[in-house]
Each structure stands twice: as structure tokens, then as C-alpha cells.
Amino acid sequence: MSSIEVIGGEQLKGELKIQGSKNAALPIIAATILNKGITVLRNCPKIRDVFYMVKILEELGCRATWDGNVLLVDSSTLNSTTVPEESVRKMRSSILYLGALLGRCHEVTIAYPGGCSIGKRPIDYHLNALKKMNVVEEFHGKEDTIIHCHTNCIMGNDIFLEKPSVGATQNIILAAVLSQGVTRIFNAAREPEVTELCTYLIKAGAKICGKGTSFIEVEGVKELNDVDFTLSSDRIVAGTYMAAVAATTGDAVLLGAPVHQLDSTIRVLRKVGCNIDTIGNNIRISCRRRPLPIELLRTQPYPGFPTDMQSQLMTILSIADGKSTIIEEIFESRFQNVYELRKMGAMISVDSTTNKAVISGVKQLKGAVVKAHDLRSGAALVIAGLTAEGVTIVREASSIERGYEDICRDLETLGGNLRYCSENVLVS
Ligand code: EPZ
User: Fold this and answer.
1) I need a labelling partner for 27 at 20 to 30 A (CA). Which of 103, 292, 319, 407 fits?
2) Residues 44, 62, 116, 421: which is the catalytic one?
3) In whole angstroms, what is the distance from residue 265 CA to residue 316 CA?
4) Statement to judge: residues 64 and 115 lie in one domain
5) What atom in ligand 1 is closest to the CA of residue 193?
6) How far is the CA of 118 from the centre of ligand 1 (A)?
């Protein structure tokens, strides 16, 4: 486990290019097995979760090679329908192979993905939908943690999602693309990563309409063709670095950002006092003063304010000039950073029955030894260290590498004073 040592006090300035999107790459890597051929995926981020997804491709018998940020997949050699339990334990997004393997092979064996620090992360919506598509589901192993699904034919059907689940929408689409008949998804997730999966599949010959809306219709086709596809850049990485510039009262330009996917994040950062201009796919953000508080900030499904930006805003609001309230509407336990920010002097109270955090801004945080609970809260603690007085050590920072190619490299490019260090470093 590595740590990150952050020395506070620098205002972030300069220019930084934004990496490819993790949450677009993961479902599309799973989708490559639906085409018994070649997929070229450009602008693919070289991050831990992508490496895990590619390892599973290879465990299934596919071939994958890298050329810089270009990932080439040949899934013609796929020879297994079992996703190793170890791989699922490491990364819950491997559950996206459920729909993809059913779509390609009409069979899959995969372990129940565990919960994680932000919540139980159930997959009942996924399983209920697939059952309605003529898929038989059996459970094996101790405590029924191994799922074996099979069907002689995936049948299109009408699926009503209780919540607009990103993963469930993606798995239903992956299973429906090569099915018989039409699948209509009601209350589908509208996240850009769902839209991007649909764009990739349509380019491969799938028949999908309604992408980006809460009603998506998939008409099954016989087969898909080879695709050369360029991933969009990562809206949460862009939002994270915008938050870092805001928190350090900096002035910087993010190059190649997915501007049109950032409306709610830009709106909230303007509320805390940032000046933000967008020129094409570049975003200039500056903040000349201590952040302003926000009376009430709720996380919501897209196009609302993203839950993956909640920790980063909590860091900004912990030094705002007044009192703010955040309500986390998506996950049941995504306030772990409160305990870490308190070590840095933040004044935050939490009502876990309503998933509400009330933040009374302090003038400045103080450096401390803190711990990253997940990749987004880890990134938010790095931002806290950049604004704090003194030195902050973010322990168990390796979780950040799951979604950020190199957060130290990126923030150093903007003038941040931070570096990776060994886990047992002592704060001087
Ligand atoms: C995706 O997770 C993202 N991951 C998450 O990003 C993101 O936070 C989340 O969507 C919400 O936007 C990827 O895209 C790889 P959901 P996912 O299914 O698909 C409940 C990051 O930091 N639910 O939309 O797992 C669930 O408990 C990660 O990059 C069920 O109850 O999220 C949650 O409360 C973290 N039953 C809500 O729906 C189900 O079967 C939304 O979850 C499925 C979900």
C-alpha cells in the first residue's frame, strides 16, 4: 500500500490534459466480447480497474495488447464463460461480464461482487431483469456466492428499473444486443457512460435507440462487426481537478475535458465562487477567494450532481466561509471522509439516518495523517492536503490508482507539491 505526502500552500496554475474515462472504458471492454473479432479502443486510461478488466478478458481466452493508450482486443479466441472469483472480488465492475457473456455465449459463471466502503452495492436489478429475458439463474458455493446463468435463447422484454442503475442498465443492454426480439428499458440510467456504451455498440452494428434518455430500446441483431472507437475523457477526473483548483484559489486550464457532461459540476463550482469559462473542450477555472458555502447540495442520478464528486465538494465546503449541507442520495455510506477531514480540523456533523452532512467551514485545514477509503474520497483528501497548512499523508492511497492514471503527476503539473511515499513514512 502506498501513501501520498502532500505539502499544502500552493495555488494550482497551468494546463493539464484530462485522461480517458474509466467508467466508459469498463463497460465497453466487457462489450468487446459481443463482437467475435477486433475492437480498437483509443484514449483508454491506463488505470488499475482497466487492467483488471483486461485481465479478465485474457482469462476468458481473448487477446489484448496495448500501444500507448490504444487497447486492441481480439475476442475471436474467447474460450471460457467463467469469470474467476478472485477477479470479481478485486473489482465489482467485473459484473458487467454477466450481460456480455450471456449475450455472446448464453452462459456465465461469476461470483457475487462484494459490497465496498460506499455501500452494499446489490445486483438484484441486474438479476431480476435477466430472469425476465429468459435467463435461468442458479446459485452455488458457500452462501450461494457463485452465480451460474444460462439460457437457450435471450428473449427481449420490457424491464422497469426501480432506480436508474448505471450497471443494471448496461448489463441489460449487453444481454439484449444479440437477443431475439426487442428489450425496452424504463427508468434507464442516463449517465454519459451508458450513452457511450450505446454509441460504441451502435457503431458495432447494434440497434439501440433512446441513448441518454430514461427510455432505451434495444432490438436484437445476429452479430456485431469490428470497431475502432475513441473513448471520451473522464468527467469525474476533470471535476476532481477543477475542485483542486477551486480549493487552492488557483487558475488553470483543463484540456480535452468532456465539457458537455459537466453541467451540474460546473454549476456547483460556480456556486462556491469559481469563474469557469469553456472554450471547445477546454475549461478555464479560477477561484480568487475563499469558497462560498452551499445551503443544500444533493447528489442525484445524471444529469444531477454526481455522487462521485461528493467527497471532492465536501473538501471545498470544509473551508468555505459559512455553513453548508450535503445530502448523499445514491449510496448509503459515502461519508467516510468526514472522519478523515475532522482529523484535519474540519467541523462536520453527520446524521446517518438521513444521509445528511452539515459542514461549518473553517479558515484552513491542518495537515494530518489520513486514510483513503475509496478512490474518490482518496482524491478528495489529496485536495484537502493541497489546501491545508503543513504536511498531509494520505495512507492506502493505492485505491486512487483505480481511477486516476497518476494523480501526483497531474497535480504536480499544475504546481502542486506532492509525491508518493512508502506506507510507513512518519510525518515530520
Ligand atoms: C456506477 O456504479 C459507477 N461505477 C459508480 O462510480 C457511480 O458512483 C455509480 O454508477 C452511480 O453513478 C461505474 O460506472 C464502473 P448504480 P453502479 O447501479 O453501476 C442501487 C466510481 O467512483 N442498486 O447506478 O454500481 C445501488 O445500491 C464509481 O467511479 C440496487 O439497489 O451504480 C445504489 O444505491 C463508484 N440494486 C444505486 O442503485 C442493483 O441491482 C445506484 O447504483 C443495482 C444498484
Assistant:
1) 407
2) 116
3) 13
4) yes
5) 14
6) 10
Instruction: Choose which residue among 118, 163, 191 to substitute to test ligand 1 binding: the one with the highest number of ligand atoms within 8 A of its C-beta.
Output: 163
Q: Is 116 a catalytic residue?
A: yes
The CATH number assigned to the domain holding 380 equals 3.65.10.10
- Nearest residue CA, atom 42 of ligand 1? 165
CA distance 164 to 151: 26
How far is it, in rounded angstroms, from Cα 389 to Cα 256? 32
How many domains, the chain? Answer: 2
Q: Which domain holds residue 69?
A: 22-230
Q: Are residues 355 and 220 in the same domain?
A: no
Q: Does the global pTM surpass 0.85?
A: yes
Q: Which residue puts its alpha carbon closest to atom 7 of ligand 1? A: 308
Is 220 found in the same domain as 163?
yes
The residue whose C-alpha atom lies closest to atom 31 belonging to ligand 1 is 122
First to last CA, the chain: 20
- Per-residue pLDDT 10s for the chain (428 aa) are 689 999 999 999 999 999 999 999 999 999 999 999 999 999 999 999 999 999 999 999 999 999 999 999 999 999 999 999 998 988 889 999 999 999 999 999 999 887 677 888 889 999 999 999 999 999 988 788 899 999 999 999 999 999 999 999 999 999 999 999 999 999 999 999 999 999 999 999 999 999 999 999 999 999 999 999 999 999 999 999 999 999 999 999 999 999 999 999 999 999 999 999 999 999 999 999 999 999 999 999 999 999 999 999 999 999 999 999 999 999 999 999 999 999 999 999 999 899 999 999 999 999 999 999 999 999 999 999 999 999 999 999 999 999 999 999 999 999 999 999 986 655 54
Contacts of 251 (CB under 8 A, 6+ apart): 11, 12, 13, 245, 284, 285, 286, 287
Q: 119: CA distance to ligand 1 center in Å?
A: 9
> Is 90 contained in some domain?
yes
Integer angstrom CA distances of residue 45 from 24, 42, 222, 241: 10, 9, 31, 16
Residue nearest to atom 8 of ligand 1 (CA): 308
